[in-house]
Amino acid sequence: MNNNNGTTPTYKRVLALAGLVILVGLIIAFLCVALFGGPDSKDLFMGLAGAIVAVPIMLWLLLWGLSAVTGRHNIASLDAGSSNKQHDKFGNVIPDGKIDTVVFDIGNVLTDFAWNDFLVAKGYDKAMIERIAKATVESDDWVEYDKGNLTNDEIIARFVENDPEIGDQLQDAFANIDGIILKRDKTIPWIRSLKAAGYKVLYLSNFSKQALEGCPEAMAFLDETDGGILSYRDHVVKPYPEIYKLLEERYDLTPEKTVFIDDTPVNIDAAIKLGWNGIVYKNYEQVHDELVALGVKY
């Protein structure tokens, strides 16, 4: 039978009572041995003293471990700094205001898409970099990386078709794209502060398998989030509505309670058409101020 009346479930009350009885019993036994025990009771006295200390610690660690595994807060995992916040029945903070979910783009929002530096590091001069860029990152074919439907060799072949005269350079430049994404130091603290305030934090990005696997340090923040969508895994890309709707369904989002942060205006426009809130990323401080204006407190 479901318990929806807001009271503590019976089994929890029974367990709490049993724990209390055990602890009180240990304390009474300890006091009895201390007052009435003889010289032969030393080992029992020490054992009871240790148990009185160890049992609460073990119970606390057990509760903390359960919270870490299930993601549901309990008395052992509650943040004292959130004592003035509202909590749901699992102890999770309920955010103030109308927003409960923050969705991030990745490139040039949570990381730097450093394609120019990437090409400079390979030894190309400014003129060649401009030419390579037109055939690759600035071409319509770049989205094929993000769709995840073609192999790396097939994508490079398309780049070569865009400028056959520099085919060798294109092959060399994009044989792998390790290092094309760079980490931002603010990213993980930003995500953690939003999550600590009770917000669900997701990512929604046009992103390739090659960039993910080639830039592990920059992408380490993914483990800090509550999940999200990288386009290559689902073969859908922004700004088409399918990718937004997929995120809604997968994470049970309420559009009007969701805010999306992306550096590309057309992607924000697509989100707003679906009822989301949107912020075009220019810099961290500007986004912070716009989040606060939406009632996001962190």
TrEMBL record:
Q: Where are the transmembrane segments?
A: 14-37, 44-66
Keywords for the protein's UniProt record, in alphabetical order: Hydrolase, Membrane, Transmembrane, Transmembrane helix
Q: Give the highest taxon in the source lineage.
A: Bacteria
Task: Work out whether the entry's keyword set contains Membrane.
Answer: yes
Q: Which GO terms describe its molecular function?
A: hydrolase activity
Q: Which InterPro entries match?
A: HAD-like_sf, HAD-SF_hydro_IA, HAD_sf, PGP-like_dom2
Q: Which Gene3D superfamilies does this entry report, sorted A to Z?
A: HAD superfamily/HAD-like, Putative phosphatase, domain 2
Q: What is this protein called?
A: Hydrolase HAD superfamily
